Amino acid sequence: MKVKTFSVPEIKIPTDFAEFGAERQPSTDVAGCENCKVSENALEAIKASTPSMLIDHWQSQDKQLRRELGNLHGVKPEQVFLTAGALGGIIYTFDIFADQNTRVGLLTPDFPGFRHYAQRARSQIETLESKTFPFTHSSKDITDFIKKKDICLFITSNPSAVTGTIREKDEIEAILKANPETMHIIDEADSIYPDLSAAQLANRYDNSMFLGSFSKFYGLSGLRIGYLITPPDYINALEKMINPIELTSVAILAARHALRDINYQTETQKRVEENLKLLEGTCQDTSYKIVPGSKCFASYIWADDSTEDPGKALEKEGIKINNGSYFGLPKGGRINLSDKRKISEVAEAIRRIHSR
Description:
CATH class of the largest domain: Alpha Beta
Shape: globular
CATH architecture of the largest domain: 3-Layer(aba) Sandwich
CATH topology of the largest domain: Aspartate Aminotransferase, domain 2
């Protein structure tokens, strides 16, 4: 053969996949990253779908949705590109900016899928690790790492897909300023507070790209729709590279309605805040601790070496969390804060463990 196959280790996605006709096992599963509720407005819009929505090809770069996202993030509509989830945005950024000569900088812990796309681009990979609670990387640590390793492209989740902690906009800006020759991909897919987005910085820094998603906060994981926000300099490249039939009509329709459903969004934020408060309160005065400051569905539970791994202990109680090994950590795990009933069951399990 005149061609050779090329592949890399399969991507790791921190959730289980639903399957038509498959029965789900009865357990308290808080390992995923999805919202537990959907916007009723979005659901009603889908129910009212017309035959043409299934028959026709639809323009994926919906002007109205791009305009509304631009208004939300303080950028022009033409800076917004709709993608098949935030993963679609990751693919485009690596397609445009990375090759075998690119040194890609990653953090540990972080979303492990970033490594998969760097490998697909045949890029060189450097990693900055922080395996001590609360697993943070300071701005100085990141800047020093980028300079020392001569990183060409740096990608990270914000808020953290592991701990839920967030870097404020001024911290992101400081990193961009300190490394003007490095492209920074900031994945905001886990965000549930649009007002905390740093995407507006794309107006001023051509070394930045921001990714967003409708999967988590907006409850549309099953429709695979996200977006990226680019500095003006790269609009032309993205227009050439973007798939004109990237999205389905149903995804665009549902995203429009979920984006406008402020009551649904406020209820989601309130529920997550209450669930985090319950989890933190339950762990107080126990051997468990929660990484403080979560601003999304993700919350990380940890324990010192004198205590059994919380992931294993909770599993014995019928609780499934996303174990730390998935994120390169030796113990503990990520808990999804979305579901009030499930977090109450987690809290009860923690009380049982510490009452023995």
